[in-house]
Amino acid sequence: MTDTVKYVLDESRMPKRWYNIVADLPSPPPPVLHPGTKQPVGPDDLAPLFPMALIMQEVASEREIDIPEPVRDIYRQWRPSPLFRARRLEKALQTPAKIYYKYEGVSPAGSHKPNTAVPQAFYNREAGIRRIATETGAGQWGSSLAFAGALFGIEVKVFMVRVSYNQKPYRRALMETYGATCVASPSSETQSGRAILEKNRDHPGSLGIAISEAVEVAATHDDTKYALGSVLNHVLMHQTVVGQEAMAQLEMANDYPDVIVGCTGGGSNFAGIAFPFIGAQLRGGKKVRVVAIEPAACPSLTRGQYAYDFGDTSHLTPLVKMHTLGSTFTPPGFHAGGLRYHGMAPLVSHCKELGLIEARAYTQTDVFKAGVDFARAEGILPAPEANHAVKGAIDEALRCKAEGKSRSILFNLCGHGHFDMQAYMDYFAGKLTDQKYDEGELAMALAGLPAVPKAA
Ligand SMILES: Cc1ncc(COP(=O)(O)O)c(C=O)c1O
User: How many angstroms separate the alpha carbon of residue 334 from the centre of ligand 1?
Assistant: First the structure.
């Protein structure tokens, strides 16, 4: 078959193991530091927040980790996800490029996030935990953890960034349908939230603030742990089912990507699709260009500093070395809520420092135009976050056209935008603007980066 559109794997070919890129990197990523002592943290330091099984995955150095059978069993509700060849988009663009996209919007919550929500809920349940607190930006992660909590009988409490809470009421309704509770962040339920509200009652919120609230709840309640939907090593590792499947599906297509594109908020969907291919390259396989796309209004990889910083605004988390805009930086309230994070996954940052990946930033009106063009050709309406990857892939395809070259482009269509229709309505009404972040605020946030010992 030469004109196949969907490459579909049988359930029996779903990955049995997660892939850990740490095993293949030429140097290990810098250690996580204790915020008080500024010394590397040990597993016990993280125990108030996470179950030990996840902490051990966080510090794991083996290349592969078995996916527990109960997790694989739930993955089968939507995995393996389809790989599409975007033949109609290729035609619309009149490009000689071959464009493939892995579609993660087929999951129950509508994005890649359940790939890690399910194992995180599983390991918490195994450790006897009854309640998990978390943050959410666009609501994709909150609804994914709410879904996973329902399956494992765990109560889920979600702090949702206020600007998204107001923009996306149906995401909150979905979380509540799964049985979770969801409050707008900053909230008056935590010290961290109250401190922010005292200074500004109308604060739009940020992922950094919502993380502080959720961490505070976990740290102050014995029956509650914390879960993060991105950034951490174990989260990125859980997402590698995406890239592993894509590899097998491209084999069915008798192809291999020249370029891989993903959007980056905290880095998990990007790592999920890219790390298995980068790993193959590091082990002597074919070289692949890997491009991370981020919003111009929150450009951690392209404008941030590579430095130790807190993962949250109230400075409750350990210090990680990453590309950061400063933990107090509040990005403007643009529509790709999942990309409004001040930092980047340490493993993605490390890969950037090693020259294994590139990064580009796009404005929101440009990415919405790309999303609309994509929907009109392929039918699927992408999430605003995913539109960044769509635009990245389209630009690569147009470059092929300009150069008269055919390349294979693979991108992660990490979620659908069915709960994001207000953003599309605003786009069509001409109300979406390309808000700039405040340069003065960025400079101040960067000036506040914590001091760490030289060796780190
Ligand atoms: C659909 C979608 N894509 C991307 C992201 C960004 O997260 P990450 O960079 O970890 O994939 C989010 C986060 O909420 C999301 O909902």
Answer: 14
Helix axes 169-177, 140-152, angle to 10 degrees: 10
pLDDT of 1 strictly over 70: no
User: Among 175, 228, 242, 263, which is best to mutate for testing ligand 1, by the most ligand atoms less than 8 A from CB?
Assistant: 263
pTM: 0.97
> Which band of pLDDT confidence, cut at 50, 70 and 90, is reported for residue 338?
confident
The best mutation among 140, 175, 323, 420 to test binding of ligand 1, ranked by most ligand atoms within 8 Å of the C-beta, falls on 140
pLDDT, tens only, 139-174: 999 999 999 999 999 999 999 999 999 989 999 999
Pick from 66, 82, 79: nearest CA to 16? 66
- The first and second tokens of residue 89, run together, are 């988009």
Residue nearest to atom 3 of ligand 1 (CA): 385
Residue 134 near residue 159 (C-beta atoms within 8 A): yes
pLDDT of residue 269 exceeding 70, the answer is: yes
| Atom number of ligand 1 nearest to Cα 264 | 9
